[in-house]
Write a structure and sequence with these properties.
Layout: E1 2-7, H1 14-26, E2 29-35, H2 46-56, E3 63-68, H3 72-78, E4 83-88, H4 91-107, E5 112-117, H5 127-135, H6 146-158
Parallel strand pairs: 1-2, 1-4, 2-3, 4-5
Length: 187
Amino acid sequence: MIAVYPGSFDPITFGHLDVIERGCRLFDQVVVVVLQNPNKSPLFTVERRLEQITLSTRHLSNVEVDSYGGLTVTYARMRNAGVLLRGLRVLSDFEKELQMAHTNKTLSDEIETVFLATSNEYSFLSSSLVKEIAKFGGPVDHLVPQPVALDIRQCYAKTPLPPTPTPAMGMLPMSELPNLPLEKQPE
């Protein structure tokens, strides 16, 4: 059976990779599909995300990487997939994912959604978190595959953070104010 694992993967994390690897043990083929969402401003191009995923999954013989710009169920039908694979990290994910699964079922009754709970060590991990850590210069090597970590470092090296704001001209922080005598009050 073919399973489609859709997402933005901007960037792919070890949490995504965990779901892909476990999906590969359950299904004959897992198609990781980068969905093109016009409502998002991704860090990486679709082409670069496809390369990152391909490099990160090269040890898995039954993975294919693709992209698509329409409804996930339409893509799954085109690929003759019987399953949409989705990862769950926390309870709030479940509400959103369940709503999406029910919606997809109304669009295509023959496609099932299978949820995999992420392994404990990745339950906190999201692409947004990785980008935020990297944006402020923190290490991400323990959160994403090595080629992705290199891409992220290069990306943020090209777009440094704006300088830290300084006090307005003529204003000094309280700690730097001189000790001025208090004005005498009229008697």
